[in-house]
Design goal:
This protein has 2 domains: 259 residues, 3-Layer(aba) Sandwich (Rossmann fold); 146 residues. Helix content is 42%, strand content 16%. The protein contains 13 helices and 14 strands. Strand 11 and strand 12 form a beta hairpin. Helix 2 crosses helix 4, helix 8 runs antiparallel to helix 9 and helix 9 runs parallel beside helix 12. The radius of gyration is 22 Å and the shape is globular.
């Protein structure tokens, strides 16, 4: 039984999903939006024709994913789910499934507008209250006395609650490791946060998402969707990982994936992944990005939050740098194949020239940001702020869509990893005996989920 993973614009969120699937031993195939769209344009459907049990859409920018799918790709996914497929969306993948002009319209709910941009800057661990029993809710998650579990969120949007979908979990509070922008909230007492709100009109509390829906499910035709703004695939997150494993094991053919192993996904240490492909250009690329990160660290702009996630001062494009570093590390970790090697031989010189330019200009940009930190409040010191903003846009595009010079580097690496990942998907597939189930004719979930 195979699972498809939509690969476009996922960056390290896609890598994190694959890390989890490899840990659980679940067979997967990466699919590009272009493949899905082109098959549908030819009166076919790659999702149905290959008997995929589910489609996982990782985090990332939903707008960019939708744009690459085009109308044909969107129609193909809707047909897949309508005829019995399971759609699993995390964060941006959840947002893509909602109703809107550029969305899949699997779920009748829409994305909730933020009343304050700070509301989108929550990251880390929060507490969720699990709702009534449902086949998609595991019974073995250890909850506290208030029926709460811990789960990680990484800059989530929110659902606008409505009808015709089932809430599986709601936000209740923040946990110890929760940040708002670059501020770790546990460093400050509740009384101090209240004082800031009263004295400075600065509300850093997270009451805005209390009791808001975090994880939902519903039906679309004969199929179903499971949408979670919390990243259940985050490594070393036992409660969340248990839930993700439960969702996977609800699929026929994968019922036993977690019986012989812990459901706590192992540490993802991108800084120390062993090299299975000792490729000189990739080795140099990793060193160059590490030098950039050190420059950011020395100037109080970047810092490591854990083994896979960078932290950054608000406004610094740390997410794109994190994605670049992660993709390079995972490409080094993968075993090369002929197709990937041929692709890289054509691209590596151009990639290197782009990266050298990025390293030089980003170093200059970081130092400019450091000057702003030190002198922007000095009326006697004039800084070229507009020029610095323009340089940032040229390098990293505009938030939240990304773009700029780094986007071209990320695209090359995503294309390379797409080819390299065939080794992993084929290896995982060898451990399973897939059952031929025509997802476009019948629902494989009806017995469990009615």
């Amino acid at each position: 039984m195979k699972i498809a993973v939509l690969w476009d614009d996922s960056h390290f969120w896609g890598l994190m999903v694959l890390h989890a699937l490899k840990f659980f031993g679940v067979p997967f195939h990466l699919l590009k939006a272009k493949e899905i769209a082109e098959s549908f344009a030819q009166k076919k459907n790659i999702l149905c024709d290959n008997n995929y049990a589910a489609l996982i859409v990782p985090g990332g920018n939903a707008h960019n994913k939708s744009k690459k799918l085009t109308q044909n790709g969107q129609d193909a996914i809707r047909e897949f789910v309508r005829n019995g497929g399971l759609y699993i969306g995390f964060c941006g993948g959840a947002g893509l499934a909602l109703t809107g002009k550029e969305s899949l319209n699997l779920c009748p709910w829409v994305r909730k507008n933020f009343s304050n941009r700070l509301q989108h800057f929550v990251s880390g661990y929060v507490k969720l209250k699990v709702q009534d029993t449902h086949p998609f809710i595991p019974t073995c998650i250890p909850l506290n006395a208030s029926q709460e579990m811990s789960a990680p969120v990484w800059w989530p949007a929110q659902f606008q609650e409505s009808e015709n979908a089932t809430v599986l979990a709601r936000y209740t509070n923040i946990a110890e490791e929760c940040w708002l922008a670059d501020i770790k909230l546990s460093f400050f007492s509740k009384s101090m946060l209240e004082t800031w709100k009263k004295e400075y009109k600065l509300d850093l509390q997270t009451n805005f998402f209390h009791d808001a829906p975090a994880i939902i499910t519903g039906t679309f035709g004969q199929g179903q969707y499971f949408l979670s703004y919390p990243h259940l695939e985050t490594p070393e997150s036992p409660h969340a990982n248990n839930w993700f494993a439960h969702i996977l094991s609800s699929i026929k053919g994968l019922e036993n994936i977690c019986q012989n192993t812990s459901t706590n996904i192992t540490k993802w240490d991108i800084q120390n992944l062993p090299h299975n492909w000792d490729e000189p250009f990739l080795n140099d690329a990793k060193k160059a990005v590490e030098a950039l990160i050190r420059t950011g660290e020395r100037n109080f702009l970047l810092f490591w939050r854990n083994s896979w996630l960078l932290g950054w001062r608000r406004g610094i494009p740390g997410s794109s740098i994190n994605a670049l570093y992660s993709l390079i590390a995972e490409c080094q970790h993968a075993k090369p194949n002929k197709e990937a090697t041929l692709f890289w031989d054509k691209e590596k010189q151009y990639f290197q020239s782009l990266l050298e330019k990025l390293e030089t200009l980003t170093t200059q940009y970081f130092l400019a940001e450091r000057l702003i930190m030190s002198f922007s409040s000095n009326d006697a010191q004039e800084l070229p702020l507009e020029h610095i903003r323009k340089e940032k846009k040229n390098l990293f595009g505009e938030s939240p869509w990304g773009g700029g010079l780094i986007a071209e580097l990320l695209q090359i690496l995503e294309d390379l990893y797409y080819l390299l990942a065939k080794n992993d998907s084929d290896k995982n597939q060898e451990t399973f005996l897939p059952k031929k189930i025509d997802l476009c004719l019948s629902s494989q979930f009806s017995d469990k989920l009615k």
